[in-house]
Specification:
Elements: E1 2-5, E2 12-13, H1 15-28, H2 36-39, H3 47-55, H4 60-76, E3 83-84, H5 88-97, E4 101-109, H6 110-119, E5 126-132, H7 141-151
Parallel strand pairs: 1-4, 4-5
Antiparallel strand pairs: 2-3
Helix pairs in contact: 1-4, 3-4
């Protein structure tokens, strides 16, 4: 049996790191960040759209700069300010023992998703980690899943 897991909000709670990275980027651009509660709605959606909303601007240069600043912090510490949910390791181990083939499917860039999975010792459970490119493609998880199914010959 093949089982796909999302990363953020399924295997781990990324709240602390993501919020800190949003604040870092906004403050670097001299914007006052919203409260943590207000920022939480931006956990999950693509960064470009989130920053366009947060900055109140579609100025692509400013949005790209915000994304670059976010990723600057995320690549060094934000991705590790994460917490694996209690019981996840045990569940993954049981599924593997039963012969399941596990993969991660996330819209987070693959380069970060792979590092997070390895950092938290989860890589041993997964056959593959599939995510987006740094440019945000695919933006929609439907396309990501279609690519994954094709790559794994599951369709």
């Amino acid at each position: 049996m093949n089982i796909l897991f999302d990363l953020d909000g399924t295997l781990s709670d990324p709240r602390r790191g993501i919020l800190a990275c949003f604040k870092y980027a906004l403050e670097a651009l001299h914007f006052d960040p919203p409260t943590d509660c207000e920022l939480e709605e931006f956990i999950g959606p693509p960064l470009h759209g989130s920053f366009a909303r947060l900055l109140g601007s579609n100025n692509q240069a400013m949005v790209k700069r915000a994304v670059a600043l976010y990723r600057e912090r995320f690549a060094v510490e934000g991705m590790f300010e994460n917490r694996v949910y209690p019981g996840i390791v045990e569940v993954l181990a049981q599924l593997r023992e039963r012969g399941s083939r596990l993969s991660v499917a996330t819209v987070k860039p693959t380069v970060f998703a792979e590092r997070i999975v390895e950092h938290f010792g989860l890589g041993r459970f997964f056959h593959g980690v599939y995510g987006s490119e740094l440019n945000g493609t695919p933006l929609d998880k439907t396309y990501l899943l279609a690519d994954l199914l094709k790559a794994e010959s599951l369709s």
